[in-house]
């Protein structure tokens, strides 16, 4: 799909295609559509991220809360979005042993209790060992820093999803 095709999309089509660039936040795609035309993929990405950056803290935390836990109950129940399922499965989180799953569940619960939102990490840049390690490390970070880190991960996930949709090289995004 090229940028001309993107710019020709009506509202419904645009939200259908880009509605999950930011996990379970189709409102962001709905808002970005109003900014068309886009000059290129980079420009499109900038609009998604500018929307996130302009939100008050409550909105930014809301975005994080729309993310399913890594290796959490949604994965077990099979209710993840297709994108999240692919990302979690690529990081090996669908084939954890019982011990590993339990450890991640405990760390996820501690993280949520401390910060009030779920632990978010771009799983495609990670693997099962790195997820636990990073979760344990970030649990100790100051809250303001952690909010920034988590939103950075949301943007990495969004960049990769946009790259998939436009079949671009993620390194150039
Ligand atoms: N909790 C969390 O990070 N979830 C996200 N990460 C990712 O790569 N896909 C997701 O759904």
TrEMBL record:
SUPFAM superfamilies in UniProt: UraD-Like (SSF158694)
Pathway it works in: Purine metabolism; urate degradation; (S)-allantoin from urate: step 3/3
A Gene Ontology molecular function term of the record: 2-oxo-4-hydroxy-4-carboxy-5-ureidoimidazoline decarboxylase activity
Entry keywords, A to Z: Decarboxylase, Lyase, Peroxisome, Purine metabolism
Key word Lyase present: yes
EC number(s) stated in the UniProt entry for this protein: 4.1.1.97
Reactions catalysed according to its record: 5-hydroxy-2-oxo-4-ureido-2,5-dihydro-1H-imidazole-5-carboxylate + H(+) = (S)-allantoin + CO2
Domain of life assignment: Eukaryota
Domain Oxo-4-hydroxy-4-carboxy-5-ureidoimidazoline decarboxylase: 7-163
GO biological process: adenosine catabolic process; allantoin metabolic process; amide catabolic process; AMP catabolic process; dAMP catabolic process; deoxyadenosine catabolic process; deoxyguanosine catabolic process; deoxyinosine catabolic process
NCBIfam families membership: UHCUDC
Function recorded in the entry: Catalyzes the stereoselective decarboxylation of 2-oxo-4-hydroxy-4-carboxy-5-ureidoimidazoline (OHCU) to (S)-allantoin.
Official protein name in the record: 2-oxo-4-hydroxy-4-carboxy-5-ureidoimidazoline decarboxylase
């Amino acid at each position: 799909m090229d940028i001309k095709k993107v710019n020709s999309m009506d509202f419904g089509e645009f939200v259908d295609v880009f509605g999950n660039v930011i996990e379970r936040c189709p409102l962001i795609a709905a808002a970005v559509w109003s900014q068309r035309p886009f000059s290129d993929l980079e420009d499109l990405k900038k609009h998604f991220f500018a929307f996130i950056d302009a939100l008050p803290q409550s909105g930014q935390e809301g975005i994080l809360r729309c993310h399913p836990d890594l290796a959490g109950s949604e994965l077990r129940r099979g209710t993840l979005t297709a994108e999240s399922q692919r990302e979690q499965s690529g990081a090996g989180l669908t084939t954890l042993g019982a011990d590993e799953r339990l450890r991640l569940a405990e760390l996820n619960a501690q993280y949520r209790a401390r910060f009030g939102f779920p632990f978010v990490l771009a799983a495609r840049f990670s693997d099962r060992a790195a997820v636990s390690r990073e979760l344990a490390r970030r649990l100790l970070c100051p809250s303001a820093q952690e909010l920034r880190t988590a939103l950075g991960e949301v943007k990495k996930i969004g960049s990769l999803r946009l790259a998939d949709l436009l079949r671009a090289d993620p390194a150039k995004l």
